[in-house]
Amino acid sequence: MSMLDLSAVPARVETYLRELFWQRVHPLLLTFDAGWHLRDIHGDAAHYGIDSADPAQGTQLLRDLFIGMPLDEPQDVPFVELDNGRSAHLHLIPDGDSFHVLLLDAETERERRRAQQQLGHEEALKSQAKTKAIGQLKQIRTELERQHARLEEAHALKNALIATMSHEFRTPLTSIFGYLQLIDRRAKEEPTIRDALHAVRRNATYLFTLAENLLEYGRSESSVALLNPTPIDLAALARDLEAMFRPLAEEKGLEFHVTLKLDDATEPVFDEVRLRQILLNLLSNAVRYTRRGEITADLVWRGQTFSADITDTGIGIAAAHRDSVFTPFNRGGHAGSKGAGLGLSIVKRLVEQMRGTLTFDSEIGRGSSFRVAVPLGRERANAHTEAAIAPRFWLQGRSVLVADDDPDIANLLQALLGDLGFRVRVVADAQSAVLEAMAGRPDVLLIDVELSGLSGNAAVYKLRSRGYKGRIVTLSATATSEAREAALRAGADHYLTKPLNVDQFVHVIQQAASADWDGRSDEPDDA
Amino acid sequence: MTATAHKVCMLGDFGVGKTSLVSRFVRSTFSEKYLTTVGVKVDTKEIALPNGAISKLVIWDIAGRSNLDALNMTYLRGASALLLVADGTRERSLHSALNLLMQSRGLLPDAAVVVAVNKLDLVEHWEVAPASLVELRRTLPVFETSARSGEGVEAAFAEVAARLAA
Fold this sequence. Notes:
heterodimer; A: Profilin-like; Heat Shock Protein 90; 4 domains; 5-stranded mixed beta sheet; 17 strands; B: alpha/beta; Rossmann fold; 6-stranded mixed beta sheet; 6 strands; 27% strand; globular
C-alpha cells in the first residue's frame, strides 16, 4: 500500500482531512520534562476531562498510568478509561530530555467492541450456566432412575413376600375356621370340648391378626397409623398369654411363667390390639427359638408405664446381627431361623407408634431378653420428649459453639445443649464463629445458615477451606433438598431444619459430638 | 508523608467480578448489572499499612480473559502485584486465574500475588470445593470475597499492600 503524499493533496482535501481527524480523534498532546513537569499542552483537553487551566489532576492520572514503564521508550496503551468515563488510546513518545503523551479518542471503537464483547460474554455465561444445569439435571435423572429401579425391585420383592405370606397364612386359617365351625356344631353338649374349641378359635383369630401384620407392611412406610387407646384389663391379658403359650411351651418341654405386678392405681389405657401384637410376637419368637429351659413374661404396670420383660433360654442372637434384627424380612437374627423375619420389625414399629422403648440383651446359646416399656397412651408425647433430652454421661464436658443471631433461639439451644451436658459458647455472627471455631476448636459447631451479614454456609466454607476438621451442624429455616445439598457442599456434616425437632436435634448432636476431631469418616446425615 | 505508588493488575476470566471488586474497594459501590470491560480502567486508592506508612495502589482493572495476549502483556508492564480473581461458582475460572499467573510469570517474575475467589454471597452455588482452596493456600494467599457484600475485599487488597511493603 502506497502512502498518501500530503504535498500532492489539494488544499481543500487537506482541510477536510484535518477537520475529520480532529472530529473523530480529538488529539491531545501533552509535553513533559523527565520529572513529569508539564511544559506544554495542545488540543481538546476538556474532551478527556482535563482542565487545561489546571491540568495537575490529569497529569497525576497519566503519571499513575505509566508507573513502572520506561519513559525513554515509546509506549502504546490502548483503550484506557479516563476519569470522565471516556476511552482513549495513550501513546508515550520520548523526545530527548522530554517526552510527549498523546491521547487519541477511542470511545466509539470502545463502545462498538463493548457491545460485541458484552453479547459474547453474556452468551458464554448463559451457555456455561445451561451446561451446568443440564449436567445437574442429568445427574439427578441418573440418580432418580437408580433409586427408582432399586425401589421397584424392593417393592416387587416386598409385594411378592406379602402376597405369598398372606396366602400361606390365610389358606390354612380358612381351613381351620371351617373345621372349627363343623366340630363346634357337633360338640355343643360337651362343655370341655366347647371350651377347648373356643381357645383354638381365639388363637386362630390371633394368628389371623398376625397375618394382618403382613398387610400393614403393604402400606406406606411413612404413613402413621392412628392409635386407639382404650382402658384395658391387664390381668385378662396375662391370662390370655398364659393360656395361649403355656401349651406350646410345655409341648416342647419348656417351663413357662407369666407374672403381673400392678403397682399403679391409674387405669391403664393402651391400644390393646397393638399391645397384644407386641407381646404375641415376642413370645412367639421366644417359644420358637428355645429348645430347652424356660420362658418368662414379667408384666409390670408402674409409674404410668407398662413394661414387659420377655426372657428365654433359647439360641440367642449373634452380636453381628444386633443391628439388623429389627429390619423387615431380615432372617439372620436368630441362628437358623425359619421365620419370615417380620416379627421383631413389627414389634419395633408398634412400640415406636406407641412412643415406647424396646431394648434387648442376648447371648448366643444362653438366650435373649427383650424389654418393652410403653407410656400411658394419653401422655405419650411428654414422656417421649423428657426421655429424649435426658443427659448423657458421655457428653459431659464436650463443647459446642453456637452461632445464631436470634437471642431466643440461641438461649433455647444453650439450654438444650446444657441439659445434654455440653459446655456451650454462643456467638451472634458468622465472622465470630469462624474466629472462635479456629481458635477454640469446639467438639461441635452449631451454626444458623440465615445469619445476617456473612451467611452460615459462607462461614462453614471459610472454615473448611482453611482445613477446619471439627464437626459442623447447620440449622436452617429452609427445608428443601437444594438447601441441604448446598450446606453439605459448603462443608457441613449435618443439616437440621427449623422449627427444631428436639428428638432429631438430640440425635444429631449426639452423633456429631461422638465423632473425634479428625474422625470425619461418617456419611453426612441430614437427620 | 508521600505515599509509595504501586501498580496492581486485576487478572481473571471475564465475569468473575474484577471491576466489581475494584468498585467495592475504591468507591464502596456495587452494581448488579454485568458490564464487560474493554481495555483497562485505572483507579487509585491509598491504604494505611500496619506500620503507619501509606501505600498507594494504582489498580489496573484489565478486561477479563482466560489467556494473555499481546495487548494484555502491554497492560501488565510495570506491575508490582497481581490480584488474581476467580468466581467460586465457576471452577474453570480458578483454573483460568492460575493459568494467567503462569503466563504472566515471564514478564513479571517478582510480582506479589494474591488470589480472590469471589461471589462468596453465592456460596450455595460454588463449584470450587473447600479442599481446593486448602491446597492453593499452601502456595498463595487466598481470600474468599464478595463484591456484593464487601466480605473479604478490604482484606484481599490489604494483603496486596502488605506484600508490596514487605
